[in-house]
Amino acid sequence: MSSNLYQDIREFYDASSGLWEQIWGEHMHHGYYGKNGNYKIDRRQAQIELIEELLLWSDCHINNPPENVIDVGCGIGGSTLHLAEKFGCNATGITLSPVQASRATERAREAGLDSGVRFEVANALEMPFANDTFDLVWSLESGEHMPDKAKFLAECYRVLKPGGKIIFATWCHRETNSWAGDLTSREIAHLKEIYRVYCLPYVISLSEYRAIAYECGFTDLKADDWSTAVAPFWDVVIDSAITPQAVIGLVQAGWQTIQGALSLNLMSRGYDRGLIRFGLITATK
């Protein structure tokens, strides 16, 4: 990961995570609004529903719980703590943001889970863990930040125990191997704006992720596209960003966070156009 990108991502989340928690809570990811995107549900509950639906979809359940989980791109520990509490397992979260790691550690202590949960500042492309350490690799909306997608999934494979499972959800662009063809110049420009605002190197299609996962050695692979189920999230975020509390928080968080808020419609329009996709993969080692 280049030092400039590393710094940009760290500074973005150092600045914005406190505001996100204040307005949205501990889960820094999409919500799930039903298969057809028509559930009318509280915004924070929708984010929990996404976690539970991913576990159900990937056949990761309480009857065969993981014992040692890594949450790659953990934010302030929302998924990490949810999984640790649900399964009674040990869990480790990694993030590039010291602010996020510190807050996640504080939240684990507040929840009484700090004996089995820890958070570290670490690069997902060079994870500081031995081979075959975890029986569940959880990556919820962190793949889009990775400048080397193949190296990232190879690292996930390396730290996963034989027989362990990966659950991976990430932002993608539409498929280019169908009648729609290659990305248009307008679509490329749209994506570049998203990259600039949210500190992303690039995104790829779900089929490209599938090919990488197979190349890494993953088996029993299942993939899906949940774009319709999560797309309403961005309109809800936009509505919440215009409250007095949010506006005051944006001013205090600084220009980069303000810019991100002003650009929320980039994601909403991306889903509307079919350009942005929400891709899922689960597989075993």
TrEMBL record:
GO terms for molecular function: S-adenosylmethionine-dependent methyltransferase activity. Residues 159-168 are annotated as: SAM motif III. This is Methyltransferase domain-containing protein. InterPro entries: Erg6_SMT_methyltransf, Methyltransf_11, PiNMT-like, SAM-dependent_MTases_sf. Belongs to the class I-like SAM-binding methyltransferase superfamily. gTMT family. Keywords: Methyltransferase, S-adenosyl-L-methionine, Transferase. It comes from the Bacteria. The keyword Cytoplasm does not apply. Residues 70-168 form the Methyltransferase type domain. Gene3D superfamilies: Vaccinia Virus protein VP39 (3.40.50.150). Residues 69-78 are annotated as: SAM motif I. CDD domains: AdoMet_MTases. The keyword S-adenosyl-L-methionine applies. It comes from Waterburya agarophytonicola KI4. Residues 132-140 are annotated as: SAM motif II. GO terms for biological process: methylation.
